[in-house]
Amino acid sequence: MVNKKALLFLPVISMLGMAACSSGGSGSAPASPAAPGASADSASGGAKKEANISIRFAWWGDGKRHEKYNAIADMYEKQHPNVKIVREFGSFNDYWDKMATQTAGGNMPDVVGMHATYVADYARRNTLLDLGSYVKDGTIDLNSFPPAVQEAGKVNGKTLMVAQGVTMTGWEYNTAMFDKLGVKYPDYNWTWDDFIAKVLELQKAIKDNGVWAIADNSGEITSLQVYARQRGKELFTAEGKLGLGKEDMVAWFSIWDQLRKAKAIPDAATTEQYSTVSLDQGLFVKNKIALASFPFNQIPLYQNYIKEGEVRALRRPTDPKGKEGEFVEGAYLAVSANSKQPKAAADFINFFVNNEEAQKVFKLEQGALGSSKGNETIKPLLTPAEQRTTEAIQTSLKTAGQLPLPPAGQGAVRTLLTETAQSIAFGKSTIDQASQSFIDKATAILNK
Q1: Could you report the per-residue pLDDT of 354-393, keeping only the tens digit for each?
Q2: All residues at 6 or more sequence positions from 70 whose CB lies less than 8 Å from its CB, including other chains
Q3: Pairing relationship of beta strands 111-115 and 53-60 according to DSSP bridges
Q4: 75/78 Cα distance (integer angstroms)
Q5: Which of 112, 135, 158, 213 has the most Cβ atoms closer than 10 angstroms to its Cβ?
Q6: Phi, psi of 112 (to 5 degrees)
Q7: DSSP tag of 45
Q8: What global pTM score does this model have?
């Protein structure tokens, strides 16, 4: 959910509901004079020693994540005795509140956890350092990062962040539920026609009231963005305007209306009731739907609660006559433009994403590692569910692209989409009326 306080500093908040070399190169302290904080010892003439420095490092997450981040920071400090990593962390909402305040006051930490839904405004305000020179000189090694992952860290051609973990959102199913219904598993590379046919097949096989084939995603902005890209458009253009027309919205809502009339998706009241429950209380975990949509990196989380059957991934339905619609999501590390230790900050990022021991600690904390080499390193350590996660993400990276920077007002458009979908589901508006209303209101929001 969008943080309202952060909006005071961040007019751009996006939707959408996300690391590489050996320990030999990036894992050991660089030799002087390239070492972070290196300085000449005037008393000894030619001898050099490393000056003591500190780097402020901020991130968001829960207790489990804090343990991992602290462990990696401890490892870096051990290999770089002259560097002190000052840690700042908190919950997601608190993190962005504090980051907005710090940045506005010129007190941004050196290394910051960054997200694709927030980077646009920080970039527009020139508060993030262009890391291109550090990539070029080898301080940050991105050689084993797939092109799509490298591009996801760029804004207007500048490398402003480096991927810790990457993911994509797709559809998932539980094999046990399909087995009980006697329905064949979907093909990973299904089309929209396959999608609709499979949903209707599932619903026909379901005999219990209060159980449906699939969740209602008509009001979910990530799904709409993928659909728009398949039609050769963008929900938001590079200029920050609405990229869809009424005919696109009619086509989108009509897909879900067809499934609603077939009673293959939950009724509006049920969808609303379950929209804010915790993961373990959701429709998918409770076996009330056979297909659900969530980021691939959450497969292991769902599997923890689903004891019967395997949670498996499916890509978004494709349009054989259209274009690829998927895009890279995930979490990243960036450096403050005002950092007094930019070289050391870049070196720490490189350690975080490329050191083998750090990779083994981080694993799939925020999706598959940005580094293909790193994913091979941690593969033997992964559970079957985690391996299914990395396989799905690595497969999707072959076709995933990059979204334009989210515009100011994107959060309001996301809320509008949800409200418009609910209006149709509750029978308060026709598809034609709701589609026109969405276009008019979204256009007005983005034109402010």
Answers
A1: 999 999 999 999 899 999 999 999 999 999 999 999 999 9
A2: 87
A3: parallel
A4: 5
A5: 112
A6: -125, 140
A7: T
A8: 0.78
